[in-house]
Amino acid sequence: MSSSDAHAAAGQHAHNPNLAHHFETIEKQDHAVRLGMWLFLGTEVLLFAGLFLGYTVYRHFYHHVFHECSRTLDLSLGTLNTIVLITSSFTVALGFHAIKQGKNKTCAALLAVTIVFALTFLAVKGVEYHHKFQEGALPGKWYHFAEIPDMHANLFYTVYFLTTGLHAFHVIVGMSILAWLMVRVIKGRYSASYYVPVELGGLYWHLVDLVWIFLFPLLYLI
Amino acid sequence: MSQSNDAEPVYPAVNYLNADRGVWSWLTTVDHKRIGIMYLVSVLLAFLLGGIFAMLIRIEHLTPDPTIMSANTYNRMFTLHGVVMIFMFMIPAIPGVFGNFCLPLMLGAKDVAFPRLNLLSLYLYWSGAALALWGMISGGTDTGWTFYAPYSTTTPMTVFPVLLGVFVMGFSSIATGLNFIVTTHTLRAPGMTWMRVPLFVWAIYATSIIQVLATPVIGLTVLLVGIERIGGFGLFDATRGGDPVLFQHMFWFYSHPAVYIMVLPAMGVMSEIVGAFARKNVFGYKMIAYSSLGIAFVGFFAWGHHMFVSGQSVLDNGAFASISMLVGVFTAIKVFNWVATLYKGSISVKTPMVYACGFLFFLVFGGMTGIAVATVSLDVHWHDTYFVVAHFHFIMVGAVIMSFLMALHYWFPKMFGRMYNEGWGMVAASFIVLGFNATFIPQFLLGNAGMPRRYYMYPERFTALNVASTAGSSLLAFGFLIIVVYMSYALVRGPIAGSNPWDSRGYEWDTPSPPPKHNFDVTPVITVDPHSYQNPGEEVEHVIV
Questions:
Q1: Which residues contact B494 (CB under 8 A, 6 or more apart)?
Q2: In this complex, is the C-beta atom of A21 within 8 Å of any C-beta atom belonging to chain B?
Q3: Which listed site, A47, A88, A125, B520, has its alpha carbon 20 to 30 Å from B294?
Q4: Considering only alpha carbons, which residue of chain A is nearest residue B186?
Q5: Which pTM value belongs to this model?
Q6: A9 at the B interface (CB within 8 A)?
Q7: Could you report the per-residue pLDDT of B116-174, keeping only the tens digit for each?
Q8: Angle B453-B457-B460 (CA atoms, 0-180°, nearest 5)?
Q9: What is the DSSP annotation of B102-149?
């Protein structure tokens, strides 16, 4: 994380370039960055919580319309994306396992596979968005979907686009982090003795996955 | 390391202020002390700005009719005042300045856990503040700092940059909170068990939990309002099926705990000050520490008391009212402990102690009126009147600003190595405490008599109290002016303070003033409990250098 390579500390810590000057041991530093990451993931969950709350309230208000709108989403594409994302969580975990054993090439390859899965997810999501744009199943004033008259259906699509849009943004960020990690893995910056950044990147990717695991049933299944 | 009182105080030749030179060295520093100082400059500017807007509002209310500005300008003024004071001053004030400066020193650490994230947090604060101010200057916002929908989603004024600014400043707040939590967990000096953590750190720790858990929600909420303005989705628009009360719930889920982001650090400062100026161990250390966490916890479940008249169910109102009153219980625990600390102490009446007395009075008075407005039936009468304005100003200005001034006077010698003039400090404190009372006590009466908040004009019969309030506010402003003068003087020519001018037992006083760049040459080892004044004659011995 931010401080891990902050100061290639002079003096007593010169033996480990990954240890910042204000930590005594690498174990303490690892503990700190892990705790920081978990807290950050907590803030991410709360960021999405507001949207989940909005979903809950409007689903409660307009139960029927929400159910109808939910049926217009492409279940097979949604399922495909769920499988893609869960598999990508598996590959990133394998990548972490590889770097722990010092297998940099394997790790880089697995991160690359994860990124390909992320791109697949985004492509499929793009296809779904494209359908919705064509049908006019859009948020707010742009709503002109013929099959369901706009009695609050626009709210479903508002929530749909906001939640999946924010999630897609997180996919892009997560993917970029993984790409950055991959480059550094190839350069040999991480090894069996120093792999915490890969672990943290993997944690972030799991969060991206986790959010989708909640979004998928809420939007597509029920 | 600590020096005895009779030794000539020394100003260390090399310290964090002059170890590196040039503006660039400040802008790229990762030193928590320098970041604290930059926060200090920034929040003082924000406070000046917010204060000017407050004075303009008070001047406008000198007469029942338009006095110096149009109705539209008036709306912009109270919005500016609220946004600047809340997001640019109150939230970052004590954590950003004194948290940054003192927390690592108090823990015996060389820096916060993530120094670069700390600097980033300052830059986020600056960017957010710049965005919000630009929005308010270029077009102006008239929604009040609460951005209630659907007004905020439909007003033709420039709201978007202000919302974006608040969003960005939120990230700054999260980064700071996250940093402090991790620092407290991982960088405590050897020997510092959780029950030896200074009470100021406990307060900042509790504050940080709120910052980390509540801020993302307002981030999303203001983002939704912004998106709503662009897209017109109808999320908070009842005519399109949306729910404006949903906005209020999401807004207050952050903004009520945000009150404790502001007041908990203030309580932490108070806990440090009472011990130091009564020369007694702080009474009920554990209770004060736990009650900080208690306030942080129940603070999360009290937000509904802002919506007693928004059509909430009776059951919800009752639940939120009861939970809100629990905050009073935890606050009272602290107040009793502070008073018990003062009892039979050998109190030295210095400027910070004067503010501490003001703080106690304002916190108790503001807190009691808080219990009153948390009572549903009474709130229906007082809701959206000056009574509420006076209540939260008693907490926000009364308690928090007193505490900010306490902290400023108490830690000024540590930060800059020089002393301010005690006599002028007393004069200014008298003006501020008296001026504050004169400003806000009339507002309680105005509110009870039915004067609504945020109204441009008022009936003739409210004139006398409004004039009294404006007169009081000018006393308050004059007090601040005196502080600016003697503090600026002290900064350059004040007498050398020495490492521990208050003879305090806080760990942060065991470094020279101003401290060296890396705080400690050797990691200190803590061997006694904090705030320990048991043997006042003895050398401070809890640091081995």
A1: B416, B418, B419, B420, B421
A2: yes
A3: A47
A4: A32
A5: 0.93
A6: no
A7: 999 999 999 999 999 999 998 888 899 999 999 899 998 888 899 999 999 999 999 99
A8: 110
A9: HHHHHHT-SS-S-HHHHHHHHHHHHHHHHHHHHHHHHT---STTTT-T
